[in-house]
Write a structure and sequence with these properties.
Length: 377
Amino acid sequence: MFGQYRDAFANLALVLAFSASFLLVSQKTTDYYPSAHYRPAPKATEKAEVKKKGVAKPEIIRGLYLTAYSAGNTAYRQDLLAKMKNSRINSVVIDIKDYSGYILYNSSLPQVQEIKASKNRIPEIEKIIQEFHDLGIYVIARQTVFQDPVLAKSRPDLAFLNKNGGIWYDHKGLAWTDPAKQEVWEYNLAIAKEAVALGFDEINFDYMRYPSDGNMANLNYNLPAGISKSQMLNEFFSYLSDNLSDKTIISIDTFGLVLDNAKNGYDLNIGQVLTELSDHFDYVCPMMYPSHYPLNYLGFANSAEHPGPVIAHGLKISKEAMENKRAKLRPWLQAFNLGAVYDSVKIEAQIKAVEDDPDTDGWLLWNARNYYPNYIF
């Protein structure tokens, strides 16, 4: 989720490429190991061994996204807490590692300190988590994974490279780490474990995919021979599940269009297949922003003007594929103006579509500026 236009153009590009075939780049590598052969990841710190007592997950999640700046800003946070008291909002999702690749609190992990990846934008993070917990608010840590410019630039051997051997960058000028690299797995697991130790109630993983924009023809995917993108990602997903499921609740963010492709298994060229990834997480959080769907989606000239039907369709079309899966759906919903003005009517239409579906776990509202009018509460 990068800014207010999170993956908007990337999703559109995927739609245009729906019917196109994609040539997988297969290359032998010593960086891929089946999950069954993994050594346990090194312990981050002693305090990561025991999860602090937090808040039980609400039956229905009704949450808001917060940047590290917002969460760490005392005036903003206190105003938000006052609004949340006795409101329907029962959860927050706070950035602990965002598109920049920086860890946004004072991390004690040696791996983080070695590459100077810590930026303390949430001072006294444990105290802040406790403030939400005191109000009964469920606190989720949002952690971006493979979009990680800091680790990629510090360790080019862990980065996606271009065909000439240099670091590959997407259209936003951001570098990515390679899902086939074991050290990338261990690094992100260590961060997640530290977040659990700090008191977060759930870890929400984002950018759990291959890149969707940039000079794709110049990207060396470094895929082991005979291994697809989704298979490579699922090895990592299994690794996270094996190492975290007994410690915390875990969720994954996906493109909204994974729901539309739940039956045919198309991975959107980014490795996300709903029927596969939903076996490894407690919750799948598709980014179902109506503005991100293509022109004439469901016959609408502008899908952003019809949020209720767009959300309801995605939930319905993927329902059969989600039967007997570990995960339940918890969509990200649009709370920003793009394609249409998203006032209370449009936001409530999305919420109603989710809450009318008995198989969902609730919803999360995304606004990059963290502007949430009173009617949301």
